[in-house]
# Entry
Amino acid sequence: MITVRDLTMRLASGGRTVDVLTGISLDVPPRQVLAVAGPSGSGKSTLLGLLAGLDRPTGGRIAVAGVELTGLSEDALARFRRDTIGYVFQSFHLIPTLTALENVAVPMELAGEPEALDRAGRLLDEVGLGARAHHYPVQLSGGEQQRVAVARAVCRRPRLLLADEPTGNLDSATGGQVIELLLALNRSLGSTLVLVTHDPALAARADRVVTLRDGAVASDEPRA
# Structure
């Protein structure tokens, strides 16, 4: 599902160049749940952003579902993200002026899908928020907002689901609910799931844990 070869990312910082990622190579098969762990500043979120096509690497190549991301134009990359990738952010990134229902429906409406609001309503039922569909983000708890964000990420049945610290802003009990939700929805979709996390409980639920340190792969271990 994912092929990464010799991936490098350099950024300018304070008048000098910083190597954020150096020589990353990975193969992630379809349907695998991969946790990317490591200390702050190790390059985890940068790697996830590159897998999503949100940034372009300095060097190396990334292929997702057989498509070479590094060779796509910006328009083609935007279409690929829309049709193939779902992304869950740590800080929810809901649109404050839209209800929960409307937030979930937006990606489907942009893609021209019919009955987007009906499907959004069904997804909110799946994540236990059917009764909160017409509430705005400010009226929802952090855990509820993250469940809306998860519903939005899976609304177009993505082949690749990416989650950046999805439990990072939640207490342990609420975070556990979000973990269960992500894993259940991922199983029902049959998609590949890549999670960036500091949470040992979340990493323990993955099929495999890749640990980054100083922008390089320090370990790559399957879970028993």
Observations:
- The chain has a mean pLDDT of 91.
